[in-house]
Write a structure and sequence with these properties.
The chain is of the alpha+beta class. 26% of the residues lie in helices and 29% in strands. It holds the Pfam family tRNA_edit. Homodimer.
Length: 573
């Protein structure tokens, strides 16, 4: 492609609203432009990278035996009502009505649509297993779009769905998809980990997230320092069930104390001169329509996902301040399991609370706490469970090593859905004995546009993007320093044609711009190899530079083919 005729608007300055490097570079290098908050148009350079990602995804998905389809983006509300997700999914679901006042949603995911399709067409076990995938634009009404395409309202996703007659068949496909994902992210040049995860609003069991390691990741990965164990912090199990408790005046009777304007653990510990692990935090939630209070030791944090899973809920939210007053009959910031009012709701506790004595809790009265509280003596709970976040230094759940943390960007997720959707929507097949059974399902997603941002986060320097060869929008950046120089222009044109004949994808900078502008743009775009035709064109001497290493050398044009052969062989080996 000749650069003077291409649409590659680069920016010198960093856009003010771009917080992270991938967002900055995708704008500066001319990959995309924002049209509204969380909405982007992809320009030719960005589209070429998206196509590269899609080619890798298609290749690996086809190897699993999955077939590509294209499903409707617009979903009738009736399908989502069948599964109950119309009400459960929440405000991120973009809803609209047509001229006949019929309700629809813009698809954030396609479980309902694919299940309705298969239930109408597949009736016998003889047609199973079946696996289909699509690459399509998805929509989610993010409360706060940020980090460019990492959290946007519109994004490109690969979603696949499999249907099975047996659990063993699902297990086999799940492993195929898991392996395909490992191949996809490896081919994209990413440093990533596959981690155990919670299934969230999708549902199901046995799920894994594929997390790209990055300082700007919004997810925390807990991993063992001496084994392959890794899990999202929401999912990571705490195996410790007993604790050495710090007991101070554990035999004293409970006592209400004034704590004016003291609400946080840190403030309370300082005010009463106690350690955080002598405090019991009470966190009030609404799980579906039920109010529950979860207790945890003050030096730990409650894990909302674990509370939701324990109670078998679909949704969980912190109880609003108004509901704390009206429904819990307590006071925000001073909720506790005992007191003059007391709590008339379900109370569950983390294992860290068991065995505490002489603890401090909220008094359910404004500006008051209670000291010298002991569980079982002063209040009872429905049970003790693993309800806290794992922390660095905890034993690894697999019994090997201790836990460390890293931040990660989720780029893929695989689920075993089981029969959640097939039972709700009547996706039934006849087994070999002629009996009706619900199809067993799997679901497998990849954030295609997220991969772009994740790759840039891991592959850049102070000058710009450094694309892996597998995803680079062009293989080679060919630059003629001075197109007005007849010999430079002639050699540049000759090389452009020869390289294209050799099947290289070439961006030819034949613009009448200053050399500094051309070189800065080249570094910003980050193509693997730069070939510069300059003052030694008459001698047949050109300069070649590897973007990643920065290695630069002068060679004769007759040596170029061998140089490129060696470079790309090494880069793809």
């Amino acid at each position: 492609m000749r650069q003077q005729h291409s649409f590659l608007p680069t920016l010198r300055d960093v856009p003010a609203d771009a917080e992270v490097i991938s967002h900055q570079l995708m704008l500066r290098a001319g990959l995309m432009r924002q049209i509204a908050s969380g909405l982007y148009s992809y320009l030719p350079l960005g589209q070429k990278v998206i196509r590269k990602v899609q080619e890798i995804v298609r290749d690996e998905m086809n190897k699993t035996g999955s077939e590509e389809v294209l499903l409707s983006t617009l979903h009738p509300a009736e399908l989502w009502h069948e599964t109950g997700r119309w009400d459960v999914y929440g405000p991120e679901l973009m809803r609209l009505k047509d001229r006949h006042e019929r309700a629809f949603a813009l698809g954030p995911t396609h479980e309902e649509v694919i299940t309705s399709l298969v239930r109408d067409e597949i009736k016998s076990y003889k047609k199973l297993p079946l696996s289909m995938y699509q690459i399509q634009t998805k929509f989610r009404d993010e409360r706060r779009p940020r980090f460019g395409v990492l959290r946007s309202r519109e994004f490109i996703m690969k979603d696949a769905y499999s249907f099975h007659a047996t659990d063993e068949s699902l297990d086999e496909m799940y492993q195929k998809m898991y392996s395909a994902y490992m191949n996809i992210f490896t081919r994209c040049g990413l440093n990533f980990r596959a981690v155990e995860a919670d299934s969230g609003a999708i549902g199901g069991t046995d799920t894994h997230e594929f997390m790209v390691l990055s300082e700007i990741g919004e997810d925390t990965i807990a991993f063992s320092n001496s084994s392959s164990y890794a899990a999202n912090i929401e999912k990571a199990e705490v195996t410790q069930t007993s604790y050495e408790q710090l007991v101070v005046d554990g035999d004293k009777e409970k006592q209400v104390v004034d704590t004016p304007n003291v609400r946080t653990v840190e403030e309370l510990a300082a005010f009463l001169a106690v350690e955080p692990n002598q405090i019991i935090k009470s966190v009030a939630f609404e799980v579906d329509s039920e109010i529950v209070v979860a207790l945890v030791r003050g030096d730990f944090e409650i894990n909302e996902t674990k509370v939701k899973v324990l109670l078998g809920g679909q949704t969980i939210e912190l109880l609003s301040p108004e509901s704390v007053v009206q429904d819990l009959k307590s006071v925000p910031g001073f909720v506790g399991p005992v007191g003059p009012v007391g709590l008339q709701v379900k109370i569950v506790a983390d294992n860290s609370v068991k065995g505490m004595a002489g603890a401090v809790v909220g008094a359910n009265e404004k500006d008051k706490h209670i000291q010298y509280v002991s569980p079982e003596r002063d209040f009872t709970v429905e049970g003790y469970y693993d309800l806290r976040n794992i922390v660095e230094g905890d034993p690894s759940p697999d019994g090997q090593g201790i836990i460390q943390f890293a931040e990660g960007i989720e780029v893929g997720h695989v689920f075993k859905l089981g029969t959640k959707y097939s039972e709700a929507m009547g996706a039934i097949f006849l087994d070999e004995n002629g009996k009706d059974k619900p199809m067993i399902m799997g679901c497998y997603g990849i954030g295609v546009t997220r991969i772009l941002a994740a790759v840039i986060e891991q592959n850049h320097d102070e000058k710009g993007i450094v694309w892996p060869v597998s995803l680079a929008p062009y293989d080679i950046h060919l630059i003629t320093v001075n197109p007005k120089d007849e010999q430079q222009q002639e050699l540049g044109e000759k090389l452009y044609q020869e390289l294209r004949n050799q099947r290289f994808d070439v961006l030819y900078d034949d613009r009448k711009e200053r050399p500094g502008v051309k070189f800065n743009d080249s570094d910003l775009m980050g193509l693997p190899v730069r070939i510069t035709v300059g003052k030694k064109a008459q001698e047949g001497i050109i300069e070649v530079k590897a973007r990643k290493s920065g290695d630069m050398e002068e060679i004769h044009v007759n040596e170029l083919e061998a140089y490129l052969q060696k470079f790309f062989d090494q880069a793809t080996s």
